[in-house]
């Protein structure tokens, strides 16, 4: 996140496909530059971002990346991102339409097909795929942090489309995709059956947006279903 080219902070985002074109999904506090709970600036400089630099994949050159600038405010400082149609600013994720995708190879999540219906319950393992402290795991590949489902995934936490995870996540992972990754073989499914897979399978579950407080490793994940509601409203 930047203000007129000056770096303010780093975070994580991912792309989803939509009828209106590719959308970047990230946390609302990343683009506002303010805390969700009290609206205070996140940067020690007090700066609020007006653009972001996205590390994109180079088209046709897997393993190569380059930075692309996208504005997040228009000329009148109005937000260019879209918020949830029902919960609005109370939801800590937004969708930003991508306007500069020349020479970009997109690897988008499909919210109409988030992956096999594998069973996910309390204490089952999850992955938070992002960039803690801006760290890259070789090239511009993300770091996979392991966590565990910490609440009933079908129940909304605090009346919002959220579930909790237990994960030692840190600054920079805000906006990470949260997925269930299974190596293959026999995998438990939601209907109680066991399905056999010849290779790895993943299921997209939502977007990570930070810990419930600074002293806890319990983190907040906004559900994939809520992200789909936002995307479908655009």
Written account of the structure:
The chain is mostly beta strands and 234 residues long. It has two domains: 104 residues, no CATH class; 109 residues, Thrombin, subunit H, CATH 2.40.10. The chain has two helices and 16 strands. The mean pLDDT is 93.
Between the first and last Cα atoms, what is the distance in angstroms? 23 Å
Number of domains: 2
Oligomer designation:
single chain
Strand content: 35-45%
| Overall strand count | 16
Mean pLDDT: 93
Give the SSE map.
Elements: E1 2-3, E2 6-7, E3 14-16, E4 23-26, H1 28-32, E5 51-58, E6 65-71, E7 94-97, E8 104-105, E9 125-130, E10 143-149, E11 162-167, E12 177-182, E13 185-188, E14 194-197, E15 201-211, E16 218-223, H2 224-233
Features:
single chain; mainly beta; Thrombin, subunit H; 35% strand
In short:
With 234 residues, the protein is mainly β. Helices cover 6% and strands 35% of the residues. The strands form five sheets. A six-stranded antiparallel β-barrel has the order 9-10-11-16-15-12. Strands 3-4-7 form a three-stranded antiparallel sheet. Strands 6-5-8 form a three-stranded antiparallel sheet, with no helix packed on it.
